[in-house]
Amino acid sequence: MRRPRIETFDLNLLRVFDALFQHGSVTAAGDEIGVSSSAISHSLGRLRELFDDELFVKGPAGMMPTARAAEIADRVAAVLIQIRDVLEPPQFKPELTERNFQIRCNHFISWLLLPHLISRIRADNRDIRVMVKCDDGGVIADELDAGIIDLVVGTFGHVPERLASEPLLTDCWTWVMRADHPALADGLTSEQIFKLPQLVIANSGVGRSIDGVLVEAGLERLAVADKTFLGDLKTTSRYNTQVNGALVINSALVAPAVLAQSDLVALLPARLATAMAKANQLAMVNFDRPDNHFEHCLVWHRKHGADPAIAWLRSLFRTAVEDWKKKSGEN
C-alpha cells in the first residue's frame, strides 16, 4: 500500500477529509471550508490517490466512510486540533490555572503595590501562587536568563537586548527628615542638606556600583540612595558634594521610622515619603536637581515575551498601579 509522504502532503486535505466525515456531503463540506463543491471533489480525488483508498463512497444517506476512513478519522481530527493550537495565539485563563510565579521586586514597590496585586490575583484564581523576593541579593540578569524568576520590578538604566522592559511608575527623589528637625528653620537648600548627617540606603551590591549603577550581565540596575552614596561613609557624591553618611541600611521602608526619631536626613522616593510622612511625622524638602526623576520598570526575558501568563502578570502590575493611585489620590 502506498503511504502519503509528509514532505509533499497538503495539510489542507485533512480539513476536507474531516469535513466530509462530519457532514457526509460534498456540498456541506464545501460550505464549512468555504470552497466550491467541485474543489471538494478534486481534493477527495487527491486523498483517494494518496491513501490508495476510496475513503468516501456514495450511499443512501450521502457520502459514507470506508473502513480505512473510519479508522483514521479520530486521528485526523486530533491532528487538526493540534495544528490550530500551534497557529492560534496562546491564551491564558487564570481562573483555570495552577501556576507559581517568581517575582523580584524592591522593598518600596513591594510595600506599595503587592496588596493591590494579590487582591487581583485572588479574585481571578486562588490556585495561583506568587513568590516575591524583596531582597536585593543575587544577579537579576542571570536569574532572568536561567528562568529562575519570571518578572522583575525595579529601577534600571541600560537593559540588554535579550531582556524587555516597560515603564510602570514615575517617581522622583525628595529629602526627608523629621517634622521638627532644627535645620528646617534655616530654609534648607540641597547643598546645605548634603552637609547634614545622612541615613543612606545602599543595596548589597553597593561595593560594586559606579556612580549609582550596578552592571550585571549587561543590565544596569540603579540603587535607591546610590544617587549620592558611592561606597564609603564619607565620600564625594555625583553632585560634587561631601556626603556625611552616619547610618547605612539596605531597606527604604526602615528609613521613615529612623528619621522620625533622629536628626538624620535621607533621599527617598517621593511616593514612599508622601505615603509615610503623616504616620511618621516627617517633613519633605524638594531635591532641586534636573535629573531628579526616575522610573520603576517591569523587566522580563524576551524568550517569555509570547507567554500569555507573563503578559497577564504584567497587566496585573499595571492594574495594581491604577488601583493604588485611585485609593491614594495620586496621579
Overall description:
This protein is α+β, with helices and mostly antiparallel strands. The protein folds into 2 domains: 12-87, Orthogonal Bundle (Arc Repressor Mutant, subunit A); 99-328, D-Maltodextrin-Binding Protein, domain 2 (3-Layer(aba) Sandwich), CATH 3.40.190.290. It is built from 10 helices and 14 strands. Strands 3, 4, 5, 6, 12, 13 and 14 form a 7-stranded mixed beta sheet that branches. Helix 1 (12-23) packs across helix 2 (26-33), helix 2 (26-33) crosses helix 3 (37-51) and helix 5 crosses helix 10 (308-328). It starts with 11 loop residues before the first helix and ends with a helix. Mean pLDDT is 78; it is low at 205-212 and 224-241.
Keywords:
37% helix, 331 residues, 10 helices, seven-stranded mixed sheet, 14 strands, Arc Repressor Mutant, subunit A, alpha+beta, D-Maltodextrin-Binding Protein, domain 2, three-stranded mixed sheet, 2 domains
